[in-house]
Amino acid sequence: MNGHAQIGEVAERTGLSLRTIRYYEEVGLVVPSARSQGGFRLYAEPDIERLEVIKRMKPLGFQLDEMRELLELLDSSHDAEHGQQQRDRLHEFQEKAEEQCQSLRKQLRIAEDFAATLRNRLSEW
Known about the structure:
By secondary structure, the protein is mainly alpha-helical. The protein contains five helices and three strands; from the N terminus they run E-H-H-E-E-H-H-H. Strand 2 (34-35) and strand 3 form a beta hairpin.
């Protein structure tokens, strides 16, 4: 298929559901590179990589408009006219991602403590 994958294969590779991939297409975050003669969505490697980036953004709490903007920043080339603005905005996104990672680590520690409490309780029975 000339290096293209159908949506089912993409879902399997990315761990995203068919519904989620279709939704990301509907809201304009990803667009299949082609369609088969039968009308099936066909995704090239860059499309799949884009879905992987989106998947990594999701747990960090990025909203759709932020995802769209961040993808545009990641896709854009550096230009002298807007370079500093792009860099500043990318830095803001990076700071948000770091803050969210820190928050998720804290939540994980709390969850692990609770799981340990349950393990200890079960060992007492």
